[in-house]
Amino acid sequence: MSTYNMNTMMTNREMALAFVRVPFQAVKDVFVAFAHAVSRAEQLETLNEMSDEDLAARGMTRAEAAQAILRS
């Protein structure tokens, strides 16, 4: 009678799934980071198109607005 260690089999299967999942997670993380970078670039472009008077009307300077964008 042979023994069948189910715990080892589950661990090996979970390790295999994690091994397969890791590259896909990394690719997803790259796309998410790229989307955030594009969003910040668009916000900075909008900021650059605003005049200093528009910013003053909102109660902020260009530097403060840029810091707020880059912090988010």
How would you describe this structure to a colleague?
The chain contains three helices and no strands. It is mostly helical. The chain has a domain at 22-71. Helix 1 runs antiparallel to helix 3 (62-71). The chain is rod-shaped and about 80 Å long. The mean pLDDT is 89.
Structure at a glance:
With 72 residues, the chain is an all-alpha fold.
Helical element count? 3
- The best one-word shape is rod-shaped
Based on secondary structure, the structural category is: mainly alpha
Helix content: over 70%
| Biggest beta sheet summary | none
Q: Roughly what fraction of the amino acids lie in strands? A: under 5%
Outline the low-pLDDT stretches.
Answer: none
Indicate the mean pLDDT: 89
Q: Gap between N and C termini, in Å?
A: 62 Å
SSE pattern, N- to C-terminal = HHH
What's the total count of β strands? Answer: 0
Tell me the Rg in angstroms: 25 Å
